[in-house]
Design goal:
- With 128 residues, the chain is mostly helical.
- Helices cover 80% and strands 0% of the residues.
- It has one domain.
- The protein contains 4 helices and no strands.
- Helix 2 packs antiparallel against helix 3.
Length: 128
């Protein structure tokens, strides 16, 4: 949410019209991904507040839990994309596009390793 709030202010900067097309694309990818991540990651808690008291459907309904997990994973992927895109965007303002691409790729790789590789593949060997 903080990333999304930061991105809301960027177009208001006086230098925004001077951005190159790749910087604008990176900004918009980051902005749209941060918006999607915010919606998807908040959705499961909203479901709990809206659904259970009104409908009487149990909070631990297996279908609801599966849906919440899917929303959380989709939100996490969107957040990873937003973080990588904003890393590219900010780095292009400080350094050249090649450096920005390398930094964004390293950020994406670190995110993929820590958020997906470790829990899905490394910890799978634990027998869980």
């Amino acid at each position: 949410m903080v990333l999304f709030a930061f991105l809301l202010t960027v177009p208001l900067a006086t230098s925004f019209p001077d951005l190159a097309i790749d910087e604008r694309v990176a900004f918009y990818v980051a902005f749209a991904s941060a918006a999607a991540a915010t919606v998807l990651l908040v959705a499961p808690s909203v479901h709990q507040r809206v659904r259970a008291p009104i409908s009487g459907i149990p909070r631990q309904d297996p279908d609801h839990v599966r849906t919440a997990v899917r929303l959380a994973i989709a939100g996490t992927v969107a957040a990873a994309l937003a973080i990588s895109a904003v890393t590219y965007f900010v780095t292009t303002l400080v350094f050249d596009n090649t450096t920005a691409g390398l930094v964004a790729a390293a950020t994406a790789a670190l995110t993929a390793w820590t958020w997906f590789w470790l829990p899905l593949l490394s910890f799978a060997r634990d027998g869980d």
